[in-house]
Amino acid sequence: MASSSGLDHVGVCSRDAAALWGAYERLGFTLTPLARQSRGDQPLGTANRCAMLRRGYIELLAVVDPALPDNGLGALLDGFEGARILALGMADSEGNLARLRRAGLEIPGISPLSRPVEPGGPTARFERLPLPDAPEGRVQLVRHLTPEAIWQPRWMEHPNTATELRAAIIVADRPAESAARLSRLSGLALEPDPAGGFALPLPDGARVRVLDPDTAAALFPGLTPPALPAVVAMVLGVAELDRARRALSGVMHLETPAGLMVPQAEAAGCAVIFAP
């Protein structure tokens, strides 16, 4: 049966493109060139830059032209800015669409999205299956039709040595409900999180953790959800923790048992934990 293949990306979103992209460059990421998005033949008023990892990536998405359609991003940002997108990978769009419809989800169809990778370069194309009305934000399955266009070696080497998107952290006042939505979308089984709450283990080795506010605050000091439920943090695996520490020398961060934690205020609303 079709199901999710892994943790594809976390999307951090803002109306201030320069501040968003600058924040992640200060964290030691090499970002892809600015890419304007489109939906089919329709230009959109949104653009992104990404931190590509060997497994997964971070999307940094902003509204750059309010006069154009924004594919719903403005409505998300009316709630709050930060990690508004959680994307799980898939290899079979049609199979997952059929599975989700059998589960009773009203999904109109596969949503195409495309963007140029860089001026004069190839176009990256995707297929999306968004979870309707998810209170966590834009939670979706995504299939990359042109993975070679964005996973290029020149964009996967970072001064902070980040190599993989290891986990996304959701804080929820009703963790069981948020976790059940993820299980339904992904087609995968939940398991208890060792700290309390729930975890969705994914085939690529990554996971999504769904925690209550007290548990999250105990694990990640100072973590403050802007709403409940919300994606509030991501965990990145790094090749060399000492090099990551040096890359963060000019940024406020905490040494925690989970790794080097950059608080939300320094990372455009989404805490980033660099873990060995």
Set out the fold topology.
Blueprint: E1 4-14, H1 17-26, E2 35-39, E3 42-52, E4 57-63, H2 73-79, E5 82-90, H3 93-102, E6 111-116, E7 123-130, E8 138-144, H4 147-150, E9 162-171, H5 175-186, E10 191-192, E11 198-201, E12 207-211, H6 213-219, E13 230-238, H7 241-247, E14 254-256, E15 259-262, E16 271-275
Comma- or semicolon-separated keywords:
single chain; 276 residues; 2,3-Dihydroxybiphenyl 1,2-Dioxygenase, domain 1; 2 domains; 7 helices; 38% strand; VOC family protein; Glyas_Bleomycin-R_OHBP_Dase; Glyoxalase-like_dom
Structure description:
The protein has 276 residues and is of the alpha+beta class. Helix content is 21%, strand content 38%. The protein folds into two domains: 4-154, 2,3-Dihydroxybiphenyl 1,2-Dioxygenase, domain 1 (Roll); 157-275, 2,3-Dihydroxybiphenyl 1,2-Dioxygenase, domain 1. It contains seven helices and 16 strands. The protein is globular. The mean pLDDT is 97.
